[in-house]
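Archive transcription. Copying these from loose printouts into the bound notebook so they stop getting lost. Printout 1 of 2:
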Amino acid sequence: MYQEIALTSKKNKVYRIVEVDNTYILKTLRDTKSYDKELEVLKLLNDKGLLVPKILNVNKYSITLEDLGEVTLLSIYEKLENNNDKNYQHIIESLLSWLDNFYKVAEDYYRRECVLSDMNFRNFIVKNNRIYRIDFEEVGFGKKEADVGKLLAFGLTYNPEHTEWKKQFEKAFVVEIQKRGLYDMESVIAEKNLELERIKERRKKIENH
């Protein structure tokens, strides 16, 4: 048996390849620059032991990756809210631990502060209660507070937006950020507010089309 199952991706062609006794992800990137960035960062993070998919094979513009499954951070987040479940401290701590490690490894390697940029909860996979990150083509230079602020904004604006449960999640997230002492909170909140405005503008444009 061999199947190619198309996975949702706005920018690239991504397939889950199903064989008799194995599955893997085949990702074909849009251009050389995206491909080079994705491969470079994946290799770096694999070498440093961060939770990312293993590279199984590379071809021109395509990377074959370990299949981590279909459980995204967003699906966990939405399930918790639907059940009014406030046992999310482990998720918050695991996510921030992953980010802390990424920023340190990336800054050590590039000699500058780096950001992931795309902080959509779909870009994090949960497997065996551990958080993995996928999608690295938008990694660039910038302040880590921008990423964390975006995370807070995204968390508040998934449908339904700004619910009481989401506000409580954000509050717990902010407490954990402050506890770590690695981020300038004034910058994090400023970046969150900027991203909330960007999200509002993006959605307004979609509604007007």
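Printout 2 of 2:
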Amino acid sequence: MSTGPLRVLIVDDHPVVRAGLSMLLASQGFVVCGEATNGEDAVAQFEKLQPDVTLMDLQMPVLDGVAAISKIRARHPTACVLVLTTYETDDDIERALRAGARGYLLKDTSVEDLAQAIRDGHAGRRRVAPSVAAKLAERVTSVALTPRELAVLRLVAEGKSNKEIGEELSITEGTVKVHLMHVFEKLGVASRTEAIAEATRRGLVRIR
């Protein structure tokens, strides 16, 4: 357990973000002990520096944040890694927390909240952004889509027709229609357009 200022490793592939975070964290009394530009570099820097807390972005080249968290936690089960990202889809959140992230924060969080989250994470408390907490609560209380229903929904969001979806998933158009009927029922919608809008709101799909 660190007795001095908490040492933080920043992992993000954007130089401006890293520079900004370094200044903000220093102003809050933290020591930025190192930086990494991708997940693979993050694992190496963690091994070398043994930081108290790691701030991890998700979407990065070479190795993404979730994979990096998994590798770090496999070798260091007590490592404190907090996700700091712009992404908040259900899939991103679930994968990160399952990999062992102790917190999930968004880049629009205030400096004060980020500082408190770092301290809480180091103390063993989980911190998630309010919008992330809301998504987690909604996910728990809602009827989950099956993997096949989710696959159909994501292809619908890509603009694919029932015929194209059937060909891609190797199922009949009739089966696609049945899956869509179940999706509509679970999401409480009546059309493909409404399904895409509701799925995007819930973070089930991401429109690129």
